[in-house]
Amino acid sequence: MRNEFLPFSRPDVSEDEIGAVAEVLRSGWLTTGPKCAEFERAFADYCGARGATAVASATAGLHCALRALGVGPGDEVVTPSMTWVSVPNLVCLLGAKPVFADVDRDTLMVSRKTVEPLITGRTKAIVPVHFAGAPLDLAPLRELSLQTGIPLIEDAAHAAGTECEGERIGKTGTCVFSFHPIKNLTAGEGGMVCSDDPELLERIGALKFHGLGVDAFDRQTQGRAPQAEVLVPGFKYNLTDVAAALGLGQLSRLDAFIARRAELDALYRKRLADVPELLPLSDPPRAHRHARHLFVVRLDLDRAGANRDEFMEKLKARNVGTGIHFRAVHLQRHYRETFGFRPGSLPNTEWNAERILSLPLFPAMTDDDVADVVEAVKEALQ
Ligand SMILES: *Cc1c(COP(=O)(O)O)cnc(C)c1O
Asked: How much of the chain is helix, strand and coil, in % rounded to 5?
């Protein structure tokens, strides 16, 4: 058994990045300014996006996007239940109703097939999730969006660097990325909205800063529109230059991070091949580049002699940390009580929600760490 606890994720911050952050701290300008502008340009270039606007988190970006689309009372938003709570919560906060689409059992992603039957006259947006670093089957979803006129907002929190059929996520459509410390690239906290729709991006950019249409740097340093007035009431969701400096450094290492994650993922798959109790996710059956954000496995409850939570405890006792991505949102208290969701409504989501766990995966992990995890898994299964 390993002596030191292995967390399921740990950010990799370089001395150069610490230096870049210190430089901002010494510069006299801490909030949104030149570093954010540089980060927006660099991230848009990386994705091939027409434009990008930096925000305080992916949740903030999604809030602005849904608000910019006018999601409000009486509306419905189709999204998975197998996701982080951000989008369903935002839909509730906007007074609308989340409508949950089931996911594929082995990729944990929605598809046109599961989304289309849920479309009604009230559907205001479709927000699918690129899961664990793999891309959605985008072409049919985009076609559905075009045919129905219902906007598609991609939750790309796991998908910085992901590619689908030769195209990087973020290049086309409107995509929201996260820079939370567990994500593939971090800014401490932060997010980015990329869009090929300049008008939508402008509305999101205004909403992220009080609805003024300019930011603090524009107002105070550039002398641009210091008299700006509220065009539409907005939020306070801008990113700081302190965070952007870290994000810029991380972005320059994102491809190296993904390459190391891919090695670790392959090593896990090889070493777990003789552990039939754990079933990893499948890769999507189309050309793609996987960002290997999470290594998710499903526990065979009949063979394991333990439920998922007990199994996670056994790994923890062996100094191996794990995560759950995710608990089904529709069965959490607010959703059960407010909308009356019951077990049985989303079979693939619920089947996975009882069985999934994420094993440690981060770029600074060693091959020996993987061996330790696999040994702990085998012991825990005995
Ligand atoms: C992490 C995550 C988010 C939220 O990202 P924040 O930057 O923490 O707001 C949204 N959706 C998914 C699928 C996530 O995993």
From this structure: 40, 15, 45
